[in-house]
Design brief:
This protein is an all-alpha fold and 287 residues long. 78% of the residues lie in helices and 0% in strands. It has helices at 3-44, 49-80, 90-93, 96-118, 124-155, 166-189, 196-237, 246-270.
């Protein structure tokens, strides 16, 4: 082979490499331009100073109200109802029912939903895991609370009829919705992540439905708790309830805290500006 042909081949390879590098640089610049546009769009969603103050206020207030509901029901059960027991004392066993139900349906479930507004700096998969853990913590509370009230009814002398009141009917509906929500959410948003690309559209279509029924279950749980507190107060005080004894003030205060907690959680979750849109460096890749 002549030296002229060798030089020609060499120059051709150099020209080819230059063209490939130019194409790669153009692709990189295009990607960088798109990323800057996405970042600009995300920056436009950032909260203003007043928005941040509102965000902190409602998130802190929601958290305080959820915690206050648990503290108040514990105080009522320990101070006015003589604490807890199991089968050996059906009257004190009943005290487990309101405490565990509020712990499961209000405290843990409420915080599990607020995590999507509190954990703004975390990757979404970590928030999903925490959301699932909080709901999983609610399950034993709900199961034990349900068993406690059944034992209380069956072991009382004379036995109390089960599932006759509007409170019990609402409780059954709430537990059914909670169970369906947990199973569907665990299967759709965690297990299906193993085939993320092929199920992304299906999971995205379920998000509004899952969020709506989750908030509905939370509101229904609070309404069920209010009917239960009212029923308990009338059974305990009778006509004396209208004189507003000291214990009834705690029960009424707990009811107001539950209403306020539902309002604040509902507002926090449905405020569009509080939703976090994570920034991305490369399009279509979550960080």
């Amino acid at each position: 082979m002549s030296s002229r042909s060798i030089i020609g081949d060499y120059l051709q390879n150099v020209r080819k490499n230059i063209n490939e590098n130019i194409q790669g640089l153009a692709t990189f610049l295009s990607t960088l331009s798109s990323s800057r546009q996405l970042t600009t769009d995300d920056d436009s969603r950032d909260l203003s100073c007043g928005g941040w103050c509102e965000y902190v206020l409602v998130v802190v207030l929601s958290s305080v109200l959820l915690l206050a509901s648990l503290v108040l029901i514990l105080f009522w059960a320990l101070y006015y109802r003589e604490g807890f027991a199991w089968n050996e004392n059906p009257q004190r066993q009943f005290n487990l029912h309101p405490v565990l139900m509020i712990a499961g349906f209000i405290f843990f479930s409420g915080f599990s939903m607020l995590l999507y507004r509190i954990s703004r700096c975390c990757r979404r998969i970590y928030v999903k895991l925490l959301h699932t853990i909080f709901h999983a913590l609610a399950i034993p509370c709900i199961v034990l609370g349900f068993m406690a009230v059944l034992d209380h009814h069956n072991l009382s002398d004379p036995p109390i009829t089960n599932f006759y009141s509007i409170h019990s009917w609402m409780g059954l509906v709430t537990m059914g919705l909670f169970a369906i929500q947990f199973v569907v959410g665990f299967f759709s948003f965690l297990l299906l992540l193993c085939c993320d690309n092929s199920t992304a559209g299906f999971r995205a279509s379920l998000v509004p439905l899952h969020a709506t029924f989750g908030l509905t279950t939370f509101v229904l749980a609070a309404a069920t708790a209010l009917t239960g507190l009212t029923q308990t107060a009338f059974f305990k005080f009778g006509m004396e309830y209208q004189t507003l004894p000291e214990e009834s003030i705690i029960i009424n205060s707990l009811g107001l805290v539950l209403v306020a907690a539902v309002i604040m959680v509902f507002y926090t979750l449905n405020r569009p500006d509080f939703r976090y849109f994570g920034r991305t460096l490369v399009p279509n890749i979550e960080i």
